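Re: [ENG-882] Designed sequences occasionally contain unexpected residues at chain ends

Forwarding the minimal case from QA. Structure tokens:
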């Protein structure tokens, strides 16, 4: 879920997804350290499990110009996937291509987990991260169709609890602004509140304390928590308990997406599911599921799905809102979700849950998804009736996006670009830059005595916290969410930060990796008393804790 996730596109990856290495923003386009290379056995492809249509349907498929282009591309596409999986050390990948209202190609590569076992196939369930944002936008469009509210209704009129720090922006924020990534907030604003255990209500409430970093609607900045507000408003308007219930009733049910779900427990219970893996330049590392991220973020990224289910979603999109003869959403309001809201750069624009990349020979509508252990990509050439879905069980650093961009370049006859090679180079450089950032100074400044620094602190977003001595380090107990941060001396009054692997947060710590995820700077007065503790994560956002 972090935008280039924090990836090279908007993805749902997290601020401290340890050494976040987003894909190259120029390719845009996201969104949120030591293991051996995966052997060639992981590249053994699972059998294709999509049956071909019979009779005239098969003839129509063969006669389709786009289907013919896809079929001609498959041998080279499979070779590109296998080469990229080896280079990125991706344990497993599933891909599907839709055209002519059919899933005409679906295949799995590699394994569901590095620990061994079953091969990936088109029914294997993965986290899709921020690729869920298109689903959220479509449920909003359906509610607009039903007259529950309008796109330009003020959010405060629909939910008076909505509040940002700037009163004017609070009053002017409209429904479409919740999804349009131009809020004036910093990228991934307060995601760490949720990753460290804060619930949806705490995350949404916390936005009122965030300082804006740009003028309203002027600048692209990827956020996740604004989507929680959209989900809350849709659920209230539809008379359902939460957005996941809306999703199940209005999309998953009508589309027959029976293998899709929205919880950590559900994906773990699925007999055919992939396990996630954290990425490092030396190899991917298996990580456990955690209910906090992405599942605490609702429609910003909590969907689990597979190729066969996601193909039904793409068929709805390419069908302009209709699926198997039934209208699910109006063409007009579906098109509104793809309409330009803010420029990302001179070649990419963001709508609502979708972005559009401008290529030499056509526009690609797409969104990626990134979580600590999974990367996803869903893209479409809407005017040419073709969609590509790529799901992987490795952290999103841009590989699924690279495969999607490469495939669309070939289908559009664009100039040849090795997106995977370029993305790997950028991801490796970002990881190495993070390692250098946290490297211990050769000659650190003297550290202050630690015992006198202990005490009680408060931050408006996280609430109350207690700082205590723990051996040769300090521990900050975040009393509201229940997580703990270990502060280790680094250089004078600056400490590195990592999540304490305790209880439910053991999985969070494992997902974030063994290295630091941020810094703390202590503001100490002339009497040696700590007054302010300034916590900052790799996403650059800072939180000030003041002594009570």
């Amino acid at each position: 879920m972090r935008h280039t996730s924090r990836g090279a596109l908007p993805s749902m990856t997290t601020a401290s997804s340890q050494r976040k290495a987003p894909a190259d923003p120029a390719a845009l386009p996201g969104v949120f350290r030591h293991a051996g290379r995966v052997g060639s056995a992981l590249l053994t492809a699972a059998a294709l499990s999509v049956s071909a249509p019979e009779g005239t349907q098969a003839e129509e498929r063969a006669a389709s110009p786009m289907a013919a282009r896809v079929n001609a591309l498959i041998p080279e596409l499979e070779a590109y996937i296998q080469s990229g999986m080896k280079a990125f050390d991706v344990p497993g990948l599933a891909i599907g291509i839709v055209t002519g209202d059919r899933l005409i190609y679906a295949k799995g590569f590699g394994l569901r987990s590095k620990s061994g076992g079953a091969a990936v196939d088109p029914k294997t369930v993965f986290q899709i991260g921020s690729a869920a944002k298109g689903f959220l936008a479509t449920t909003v469009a359906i509610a607009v169709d039903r007259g529950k509210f309008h796109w330009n209704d003020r959010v405060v009129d629909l939910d008076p609890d909505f509040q940002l720090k700037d009163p004017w922006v609070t009053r002017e924020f409209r429904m479409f602004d919740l999804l349009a990534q131009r809020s004036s907030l910093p990228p991934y604003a307060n995601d760490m509140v949720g990753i460290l255990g804060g619930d949806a209500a705490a995350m949404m409430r916390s936005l009122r304390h965030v300082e804006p970093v740009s003028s309203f609607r002027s600048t692209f900045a990827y956020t996740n928590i604004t989507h929680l507000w959209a989900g809350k408003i849709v659920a209230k308007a539809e008379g359902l308990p939460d957005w996941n219930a809306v999703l199940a009733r209005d999309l998953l049910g009508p589309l027959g997406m029976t293998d899709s779900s929205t919880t950590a427990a559900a994906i773990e219970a699925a007999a055919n599911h992939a396990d996630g893996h954290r990425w490092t330049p030396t190899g991917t590392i298996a990580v456990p599921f955690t209910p906090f991220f992405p599942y605490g973020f609702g429609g910003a990224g909590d969907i689990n799905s597979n190729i066969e289910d996601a193909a039904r979603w793409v068929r709805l999109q390419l069908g302009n809102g209709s699926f198997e003869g039934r209208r699910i959403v109006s063409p007009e309001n579906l098109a509104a979700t793809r309409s330009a809201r803010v420029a990302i750069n001179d070649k990419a624009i963001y709508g609502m849950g979708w972005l559009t990349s401008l290529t030499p020979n056509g526009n690609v509508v797409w969104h990626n998804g990134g979580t600590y252990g999974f990367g996803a990509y869903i893209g479409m050439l809407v005017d040419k009736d073709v969609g590509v879905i790529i799901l992987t069980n490795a952290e999103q650093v841009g590989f699924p996006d690279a495969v999607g961009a490469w495939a669309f370049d070939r289908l559009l006859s664009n100039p040849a670009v090795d997106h995977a090679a370029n993305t790997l180079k950028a991801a490796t450089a970002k990881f190495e830059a993070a390692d250098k950032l946290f490297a211990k100074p050769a000659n650190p400044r003297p550290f202050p005595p630690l015992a006198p620094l202990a005490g009680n602190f408060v931050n408006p977003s996280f609430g109350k916290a207690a700082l205590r001595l723990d051996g040769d380090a300090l521990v900050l107990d975040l009393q509201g969410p229940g997580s703990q941060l270990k502060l280790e001396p680094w250089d004078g009054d600056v400490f590195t930060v990592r999540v304490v692997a305790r209880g439910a947060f053991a999985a969070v710590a494992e997902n974030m990796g063994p290295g630091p995820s941020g810094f703390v700077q202590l503001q100490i007065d002339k009497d040696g008393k700590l007054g302010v503790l300034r916590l900052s994560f790799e996403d650059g956002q800072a939180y000030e804790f003041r002594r009570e």
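QA comment: On inspection the terminal residues look reasonable. The longest helix spans residues 65-88. Proposing we downgrade this to a documentation issue.
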